[in-house]
What we know:
By secondary structure, this protein is an alpha+beta fold. It folds into two domains: 1-211 and 341-438, Rossmann fold (3-Layer(aba) Sandwich); 216-332, no CATH class. 24% of the residues lie in helices and 27% in strands. It has ten helices and 20 strands. The strands form four sheets. It has a seven-stranded antiparallel sheet with strand order 2-1-6-7-8-9-10. A six-stranded mixed sheet has the order 11-17-18-5-19-20, with helices on both faces. α6 crosses α8 and α8 (321-337) runs parallel beside α9 (356-368). It is globular and about 70 Å long.
Amino acid sequence: MLIRFSVTNFLSFKEPTELWMVASNERIHPDHVLRSASRNHPNILRMAAIYGSNAAGKSNFVKALKFVRNLVVTRPAPEAKIPLQRFRLDAACLQKPSQFEIEFRVENTNYAYSFSVDSERVLFETLQTTTNVKETLLFSRKTSSTGEVHVSFGPFFSRLKEKDKQFLSFIAQGTRPNQLFLHETVERNVERFHPAYNWFRRTLHLIEPSTGYRFLELRLDTDESFRDFLARVLKTAGTGISAVRTEEAGTEALIGLPEELIADFHEQLSEHKHIFVQAFEGRRFAITKRDDELRVLKLTTVHGNGDGTLGVPFEVHEESDGTQRLFDLIPMLYQLTVSQADKVYVVDEIGRSMHPHLIRMIVDMHLDHANAGKASQLIITTHETNLLDLDILRRDEIWFAEKRLDGSTDLYSLSDFQPRYDKDIRRDYLVGRYGGIPFIGNTRQLRLPAMNSTTSIGKPEEGNVL
Length: 466
């Protein structure tokens, strides 16, 4: 689970800006909190909703998390630049590094991981285990101005065998300036750091507005439990879909694709079990290989007439944008409510193309399963004000992103205002009591001069510039 995340000098975040998922002393919705088995570990919230006007920085928060995850799980090419986007509205920030700090829980261990980077190298990097009372160093890395990487280790190092000490020192020497030591240790199969690395790779999932779920056809074809869950959710959501099925489209579905692209499919399938293709005005299908022949699967929805006497098939691209968005989010919902794996999902603009009732359904389904013993979280950015209700969320689960006068993003919680439990949070937010809403100027200034009946609209008068 995510405990906290702090970002400095990245995109719209100039000063250290932090999302804090440690539960406060709220009395309401105690089931929204994962209680720690030890007093030395904090209790963690299962949910957070971040509000804010357009361009306030909500999406930049998700991009900052994505930057951290990508740098941890991927290995940059030698001499490659680190794709850093510093705060640009202050010239001094362009000469400073960016810094990221993240705390998270893996089973019963809390980790604190931080690093600072410029476009050339990782300046420093640390990994610790933490409790409420102490921090224990696992490793600390620094990179000199000449590109030399120096790593020091915590108390565990002295208990290692001499050959293991030498191996860790060898890995440190082989770590390039532009890559994280955490990634390099996992590449070299140092098991001690696998849990921290795997949290980024397997537990943390980021869903942006344009993110699609690429394995839907294959999963429906092979996973009966997921197929039944998908059908139930679509029915509950009132989409009009009575059934979902996969069917073999045949290689005629590939007609019209260039020969070199089909040859590329064969080459990719020699390395992967399946590939996903989206083409032809949004049509989508999955391709697998069987007996050296391409097998093409497509997803079909079935709509009935209400009494079950008629079933009309549709392709997914013929469904509404909201239904297609729901298809992309249902795998997340399955992981949060049915699967036994612990996950952290961060969804940017969860309300894109979807009705507010569907957003409420997703939030309710996640929180209704909070007592199942799962250590999973859902963090969303949204404009959907119907969630601003203390009958739905706690005060410490509601956050606001607001742009400061210097153009940087500030992030703060509703708990900072301590509104009474009977307050109309939604109304107070819309009138600006908590910030995080757009300031709209005088729209009358946008009015164009009125045209008279003799004005030509075919082309501007000579000398005028539009």
